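STRUCTURE:
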């Protein structure tokens, strides 16, 4: 997008105003466009990785398995219910805890659900790695080196 001033409009030094306006616009917006393009390239690089494709296959397998999804949802709901009881100070019965543990063990015993849970962890780790590098770049004002991530102490 260019903002164009009339061609006859010139600055005191003889340059066309539309060139100045275009340059000002591009210098203001070009970095955002470059960052956007590089972000698209990063996303493309991620989706082309065999490890990412394997993650997506496991997620897609889970999404195509209604039984595994129902089992997963049941465990999530039971976990949320127990957590809510704990947060309100209500005691948890041994039966409630055992029921949750049994449901969780059954979920983990389901290969499709287990692969989905593993895929979620791998995806989260990948996201955290990218976020950590971007955050550190903003923090230190340069591309981080491995030693920038080492803890002190």
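SEQUENCE:
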């Amino acid at each position: 997008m260019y903002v164009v001033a009339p061609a006859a409009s010139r600055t005191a030094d003889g340059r066309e105003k539309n060139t100045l306006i275009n340059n000002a616009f591009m210098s203001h917006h070009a970095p955002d466009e470059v960052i956007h393009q590089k972000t698209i390239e990063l996303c493309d690089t991620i989706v082309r990785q065999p490890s990412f494709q394997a993650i997506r296959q496991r997620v897609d397998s889970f999404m195509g398995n209604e039984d595994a999804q129902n089992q997963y949802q049941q465990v999530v709901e039971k976990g949320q219910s127990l957590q809510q009881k704990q947060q309100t100070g209500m005691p948890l019965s041994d039966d409630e805890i055992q029921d949750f543990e049994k449901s969780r063990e059954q979920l983990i015993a389901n290969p499709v659900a287990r692969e989905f849970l593993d895929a979620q962890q791998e995806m989260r780790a990948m996201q955290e790695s990218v976020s950590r590098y971007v955050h550190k770049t903003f923090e230190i004002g340069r591309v981080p080196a491995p030693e920038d991530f080492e803890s002190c102490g």
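REMARK: The chain has five helices and no strands.
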